[in-house]
């Protein structure tokens, strides 16, 4: 049966098409800067939003109309697998991503839960082989079940820590089994509700211990996918330990975990932390840890994680700019739509419309960013602005030859001659607008 | 002459005194947990807010009525020194803190500027020797002058970098001269207005180079005060590089600067970064870098740095709790009032009232925090909550004996027996309220 | 059976009691400013948070351990009624408040739903008569069921509008039946997700039509309880129509509804709108529409409605100050705990601890506010500050005698003599702290 | 002399021009929906940002390089007039706007101040007649001078109220003299720092008295320009009385001022109040009070009024959409650039670049909005969504025929048949993106 009835595979029809079920900008085979759009993007569908969620929010029940809801238990789990591969086909998307609990229900014991999981993983593996679709990343849901009320790796309850370890061990086994290209740690409830009852030092030490165990186990079983951490500043906890890219880097450095991890950065998490998405990407890029992205957008006038499908072309353009400049581009990562249709967009076709909107927005961002790179728009700006560090006293500073005494001597000579140049922000923004429209 | 006419030295009169010019809680010689209040606090007055500022804001001119405004140039600078030592006496405060440009005007060349500075530093040194007052920290203002429009150590202009180096070199000379117990780096304009014209990698590398030069120069001249960095997330720049404690730790680790720096944490900067003040203090404490505090408070419904005098007893209590638990307490740091009277509180006596308000609020915070420590309020909570990590599987996790396989084996046995305990947040908050009132 | 096993009725034991199951400040029979604390407060328990909620959040399942969860359907509804009256007894609270869907489940038709409701209302009426407990207010839940996905009175679907009308009609019948002292309209999903598909004018006109129908129907059936509107700025909608007190006043005035409505103000909604709680109360007070309060508090570093139990004594003090100054105090309204225990406080006893925390915090607020009123703390400040409007040109302004020409003539004479006085904010805040500790 | 040396008048060169000193989208004579772009826009330059400001911020001195800074006092004032008319010519902009204190310095008395003002007004009048340039609006600066520390019309000092009255009287005389098409009241310091020392009721009553006096005086002198109020929620005061459009409407209604005032809405003020710009415009439009706009944009990750030049095409498109749908379009109002070049954009040419950026962004917004209106994009959406209110029970609701009893009867029949339709937000956003690129 079909879960997205009467919807044909979406094709590129060009920017003026009035067919809502077509791509206006995403042309998978179009080559840009030496790679196809498909290769640049490595789009992925998020299982949780598109197959497990129902549109509920803290004030209301689910609204989503989904044909698979006629089933329950393992049958429901199987139906969702079918729906997932159907949507991958419709959207011509190569990758998907899931939490363990998205794909299979919990049983009454861990044994039973693992058995359900194994069964669905086997089914997914078959589907992958049959279709060529791939797993961008998997992860373990260690936040929904009440046992994780105080966290998983940062819980105050050692039994829960052990349970979480068992869960991730299994998830790594499945990552290997399915050839998952990455394995993601998202904070879930790793954080605190209040410092008043929290041993912050112990909890962070334990988190590091947990991650080292994961690294060790992956080595042991020969799983070679990339480990990723996904920063988020708040929600569900009042404070999430992986607050942002810089905080996560600080943690990884302190605990000697930096060689093993990259970051999976999400737009909405960036803005909740008070940063632009491009800031987080830039921080990751210059530290060599830009691993993958969770593509969505927040509403900056709202203070929670709205996980909207990304349609802001400014944001997608600057995100793609960072990815294009990253060594190896998005690498083994991808553009995963960690985005949910609005509760008011409850029909199955909205899931298709929403992905088209997101894919086209990123495709347009790629076009614009690539054109600006080809035209050396920002390179020219930087070359001019930082020219003083290429020679003379500036070169001495960069090379390490200068010190406070040589610099003071220089400054005493030159203090009356200092001339700055305008940063030209308004002109630059107008230029970006031109590229946005004209590219 | 007197700049705070008819105001006698403020004395402790107890919590029910109706004399506005008395301390209600700050009793300098009262011993708490083995030290006098004076020793715990090491209060400092901020030169910039209390002597150099005039109450202007982006929408209006200065309102402050200050007797020293009858002078100009170096005479004004000297009058302010007198006013500072008068206020230190009135408030019975031992420390003060300043930027170079607070205490002396700029000349037409760096040479002339340095000459003015030297003259005022000599005057201050005399005053210090005569009164026993001490310098908590000094720093260099590298943000007011237009030359720093694009930053100082992170400018795009090598000439400006050199100038900044010369300025800090001089400031370190003065730190040594005056026995300053710390030297502070506050970000000023070290940040960016937009990523669109910013070479983030180069700017951060240069910042690290600058700080290493400072470390080297301090060694060279034998200056042994503590180096401090003061995080702030935004303002004046859209993004400030020393965003918060964790970001600063990340930077210090990456560039091998961690051994040389501690943090000077400010309440209002914490909340602008989305954190509580106690969070920032805790992060610093568990990383061994809690150096000093800038005591003030923000208005969480406003989005800029309001630098209000601290009066929220919840915040001062939890701040003092972290300081009391810090190894060595506040150490060579202190409680510096980086706070300004409201523009509407423009009379000289308001400066006195405001400091009394702040000192009493911190004194009360100390009393309450100390009582909670004596009664082991939080210790008892933590002992119970984290008991499971003291023995059995929890002890194995902490000691490093456990791994994913042993933990899975344990979890498979115990997954049905997991029992969590309530975090009791509401009861804990009611308890804090009781201590606040009853201590 | 008991749902709060082994918990005796909570008694006042005074501020130094170490019994967590006692009131430290709330002494129901203590007379303050001519009324007992009980009369001032009119505390109410919110049915939804304490009996219908389960501790779930967008990232996790319910954690609450509740003895009534052994039941289902109507039996569950009946058990909750028992639990509610048990908790009212334990806490010695006189009032409760509910939405229709809190107390009874929905049936498969509106008829069946109403039948369930009628049955539970009859049970509640019996309990009320037997115990003397009273209904502070009731309301209709028009946001949980998917039919309200686009709003109720502001839906785009006339069938939904009709359904909502039927629901409120029934709720008003029940309000009359139970002698509910107020009837509340909380916005639910009356707002918009996006302006891009919203006819704002029609939706607001329809909301006004709906409220007029409610007024008419109440008259028709002789229901004389006070109508209340509860402002909230955002969540669940991106924009809620009753954004804050001023917006709601604007709406009521435009549609000639002001004579029939007062406001039910919530602390957390105030801060989400960018206001302090006391601001919203003050706006309501000076406009004669301060009707009732939903007592809770938000976390100003988080951007969603956390509905925490109120423990901030600054906020409860200033709230009680406004209520004490309101003509008739809280009137037919009350202090309703629209607050939920944290998801991490999942044991039944936490519900008791949390209400004690809230009741004591408001009781302490009452004590402090009353003492400041008795001592004329703020009256004295205002008398001095605004003295210039009591005579001379100021009196002419207030009485309407002055105009631009007379004022210009006055100003031309006096422009050089204008003298302002300090607002003394820091001193005032220190004074509030003293009252907080000493009252 | 020229203040913008070597800059020719900016011409439209089309969207692919690489000449930074050209318009890419603003083609003044292009007709769109029956009016020229020039007529739609009525662009204005803000005197304060472009001629009086110097790029200072709370952390630094002015950076702006301006040729007129060689002058002082009245000579400076005259030079700025020349500069203003030069920039109006360069940008081919027809309107400007000013505060009284922007155009002339204060003297030592009000008399002297008025004399300076009169002299400059006469000069401006001559220039206007010579060039055909027009005054969009003027206003009185009642916030910069220290006398306004506690507000102007809402001060606690009657002498200040009188002074403010005299100032506005003069400003209205000048409005008449110069044929100013509007007169604006912006809140300045009309608000409060703290409720603890504020008589909110008296202050708002006085504000209403002040505005009535202004209305009366305008009638008396026959000034017929439109009165505008400009909402802003916070800054410089903690709370500004004209918080947002709805709050201002509430105030105008309460005090019978609604017939005399419209709103001047600013993008950055909207977002500081937690609203989108288009929300504020829509609220004004459906209440018939959309008067004029202050065109700029804020940074939603910063909490203060950044007053950036508007370049976000989403915002300009939706703003122009509201203006196009407003009866009479922008009417006697205009698109006034209440925007400042960044402190880092300190060269004169940046002022030109910035205005080009803003004008092109609004021109593009106009093109896109007009195309969507021509294609009935949103009309079609609304027609479908709200169809149920056009007939049957929906028509009865709108016409006033329905009541709770007839609606209940209907609902009891139809409760099981309710069908909602998706709001299609993602598809709508994708459509907007298409129009943005393709128009």
UniProtKB/TrEMBL annotation, chains A, B, C, D:
Key word Magnesium present: yes
Catalytic reaction list: alpha-D-xylose = alpha-D-xylulofuranose
Keyword Ion transport (UniProt): no
Annotated EC: 5.3.1.5
Domain Xylose isomerase-like TIM barrel: 112-278
Keywords of this entry: Carbohydrate metabolism, Cytoplasm, Isomerase, Magnesium, Metal-binding, Xylose metabolism
UniProt: Mg(2+) 1 binding residues: 230, 266, 294, 338
Alphabetical list of PROSITE patterns matching this protein: XYLOSE_ISOMERASE (PS51415)
Subunit text: Homotetramer.
Protein name from the UniProt record: Xylose isomerase
């Amino acid at each position: 049966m079909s879960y997205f009835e009467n919807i044909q595979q979406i094709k590129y029809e060009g920017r003026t098409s009035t067919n809502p079920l077509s791509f206006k900008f995403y042309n998978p085979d179009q080559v840009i800067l030496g790679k196809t759009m498909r290769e640049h993007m490595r789009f992925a569908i998020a299982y949780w939003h598109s197959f497990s969620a129902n549109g509920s929010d803290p004030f209301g029940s689910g609204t989503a109309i989904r044909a698979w809801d006629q089933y329950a238990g393992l049958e429901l789990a199987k139906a969702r697998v079918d729906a997932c591969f159907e949507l991958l086909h419709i959207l011509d998307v190569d990758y998907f991503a899931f939490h363990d609990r998205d794909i299979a229900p919990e049983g009454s014991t861990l044994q039973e839960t693992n058995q359900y999981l194994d069964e669905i993983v086997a089914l997914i593996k078959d589907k992958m082989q049959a279709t060529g679709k791939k797993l961008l990343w998997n992860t373990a849901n260690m936040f929904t079940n009440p046992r994780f009320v105080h966290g998983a790796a940062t819980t105050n309850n050692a039994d829960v820590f052990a349970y979480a370890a068992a869960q991730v061990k299994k998830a790594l086994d499945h990552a290997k089994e399915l050839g998952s290209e990455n394995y993601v740690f998202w904070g879930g409830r790793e954080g605190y509700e209040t410092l008043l009852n929290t041993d912050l030092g112990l909890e962070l030490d334990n988190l590091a211990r947990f991650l080292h165990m994961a690294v060790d186990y992956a080595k042991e079983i020969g799983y070679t996918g990339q480990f990723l951490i996904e920063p988020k500043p708040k929600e569900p906890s009042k404070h999430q330990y992986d607050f942002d890219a810089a905080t996560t880097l600080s943690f990884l450095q302190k605990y000697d975990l930096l060689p093993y991890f990259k970051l999976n950065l999400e737009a909405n998490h960036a803005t909740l932390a008070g940063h632009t998405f491009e800031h987080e990407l830039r921080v990751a890029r210059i530290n060599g840890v830009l691993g993958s992205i969770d593509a969505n957008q927040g509403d900056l006038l709202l203070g929670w994680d709205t996980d909207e499908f990304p349609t802001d072309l400014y944001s997608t353009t600057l995100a793609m700019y960072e990815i294009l400049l990253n060594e190896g581009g998005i690498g083994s990562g991808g553009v995963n739509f960690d985005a949910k249709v609005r509760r008011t967009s409850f029909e199955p076709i909205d899931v298709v419309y929403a992905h088209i909107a997101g894919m086209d927005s990123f495709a347009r961002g790629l076009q614009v960013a690539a054109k600006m790179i080809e035209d050396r728009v920002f390179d020219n700006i930087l070359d001019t602005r930082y020219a003083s560090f290429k020679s003379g006293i500036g070169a001495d500073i960069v090379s390490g030859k200068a010190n406070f005494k040589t610099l003071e001597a220089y400054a005493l000579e030159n203090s009356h001659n200092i001339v700055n140049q305008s940063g030209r922000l308004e002109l630059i923004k107008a230029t970006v607008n031109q590229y946005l429209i004209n590219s």
